[in-house]
Each structure stands twice: as structure tokens, then as C-alpha cells.
Design a protein that fits this description.
11 helices; three-stranded parallel beta sheet; Rossmann fold; mainly alpha
Length: about 180
Amino acid sequence: MADAAASQTPPSAQINSLSINSQNDAASSSSTPQMSGEERFRIVRSIGEECIQEDELLNLLMKKPEPICYDGFEPSGRMHIAQGVMKTINVNKLTSAGCKVKIWIADWFAQLNNKMGGDLKKIQTVGRYLIEIWKAAGMDLNGVEFLWSSEEINNRAHEYWPIVMDIARRNKLPRVMR
């Protein structure tokens, strides 16, 4: 009988949170303003292999309560366990330090690279699937925004495409390859 009860426990109840705080609710984000700039710096700096201008990062964290951090991915199939776990840990560290995280979903670029046979609907389904994996892994989505490149480009097409055309016009393939 005990085995039957254990098998009915939802998997989410058996998994420890990947958050750096013990709390996983909105109350934990309210503690961020009390965190010193040096503490925020230590947390943000812990996820990077290299930081070229540490003094500028520290200055940014001291002066800006909610700096914006960017990440992105190209939906291309199943997620590797390390990609799921590490992105969850890193995003949770950034949000715990008061950062806003914008994650770009490179759906058009996946289409250009012929992922999922170039089928944009399938690519977007895979993108939503990957987001669900991060949620299931414990990513704290407070302060996280997912942006689809196709939507953002279409919303600002009048700005985006003239720049693309200008770059294409001014550069030849050998120059780009060099």
C-alpha cells in the first residue's frame, strides 16, 4: 500500500527547487532591495566564466535596481538535461539578484537553419515545450520575459528590414566570411 501512495506522488513534489533562495514565491523577490550591491554582484558574477569589466558591472548593480539581462535559444528539438538545469539555475540567480531576464526565442533563425524541416509552427511548438521544461525544472518566472524573434521583428518591421537591407547592400559574401 505504501508503494502505491509513493507512486501517486506528483513528480514536482519530489524535486527540490533550483532556486538559490529557499522560498519560491513573490515574498523572496521582495527581499532583493535589501540585498547589497556587493551581494548582487557576487550572485550575478557567479554565473559567468569571464567578466571583462567587473567595475562596470558592480557600478550597474549599485545604481540600477532592475538591470535587464538577455539570453536566448533556438528551438531545435529536445533539450539536453544540462541546458535545462543550468539555464534554470542561472536565471534564478539573476532574478534573485533583482535582474529582469529577457529570453529571446530565435524561431525565425531556427527556420533559417532548417530546424524541424523549416516548419515555423513546429519550431514554435518546440519553443513552448522548452519553456514548459524550464517551468517544470523550477525556473522562477517572476521577472522573466520570453520574446519570440518573429513577433518582435514583425512588430518593428519598419525599423528592422531597412537595417537588414542596408547591411546586405554594403557587404559582399567574401567580406562577411572574412
